[in-house]
Amino acid sequence: MKIAIWSVGKADESYIKEGITNFTKRIGHYYPIEWQLITPSKASELNQIKKEEAISILKTIAQNDVLILLDEKGKMLSSPGLAKLIQQKANQSAHRIVFLIGGAYGVAEEIKAKAKFTWSLSELVFPHMLARLILAEQIYRACSILANEKYHHE
User: CATH says 2-146 is which class?
Assistant: First the structure.
C-alpha cells in the first residue's frame, strides 16, 4: 500500500518544509509516500473555484484509490483511531490511500462524495501549510502505533 498526501495550496515555508521532510522520511520506513501540491484556482467565484480544483483532483485520483478528505466538518479521530483506519484500509488491500487537504473554500460536492472518510484534525482551523505538517506527523505516529514502537505514549 502507498500513502499520498495531496493539498491544494502554495509551497511550504522553509520552517514547515523541514518538518514535513523529516516526517516524510520516517513514514517512508513503513509505506511508500508521495506528496502533491495542487495549484489553487484563480477564479473569483466560489463555485467556480471549487469546480476547477475538483477537476484537477479528479484528473489525478485513480479508480482504486481510497480518498480520505480532511475537512473541519469531518469526524475527529484519536491517533490510535487513525492507526486503526490505516490498518483497515491496508487489510482491505487498498492500493493507495490519498489524504486530501482541500482548497481555502473547501471542496466540491463530487469530491466529498468520492471520499471514503472525512476527517477533521481539530475543531480549530489551521493554515494549509501547518495542516500538512500536522497530518504528516499524525500519519507517522499512526505507523509507529501499528509497529508497536515507542513514539506514541498512551
Answer: alpha beta
- Compute how many other C-beta atoms are within 10 angstroms of the C-beta atom of residue 52: 17
Whole-structure pTM value = 0.95
The string of pLDDT tens digits covering residues 6-62 is: 999 998 899 999 999 999 999 999 999 999 999 999 999 999 999 999 999 999 999
Place of cell 495542487: 38
Q: What CA–CA distance (Å, rounded) separates 110 from 114? A: 6
At residue 37, φ and ψ (nearest 5 deg) are: -95, 135
C-alpha 26/C-alpha 51 separation (Å) is 35
Distance CA 121, CA 38 (A): 20
117-120 and 2-8 strand pairing:
unpaired
Nearest to 134 by CA among 16, 37, 14: 16
| 41, three cell numbers | 484556482
* 98 three-class SS: strand
